[in-house]
Amino acid sequence: MKKIALSKLFVALLGIVALGALAFNILAYCQVRQEITTVERDEQVVSKMFEVTKLIILKQQLGDTNATKQLLSSSINADLARLKILRGEVSPTVDESINVLLKVASKNQNEQTVYKLSMAQPVAR
Question: For the whole model, what pTM was predicted?
Answer without folding.
Answer: 0.53
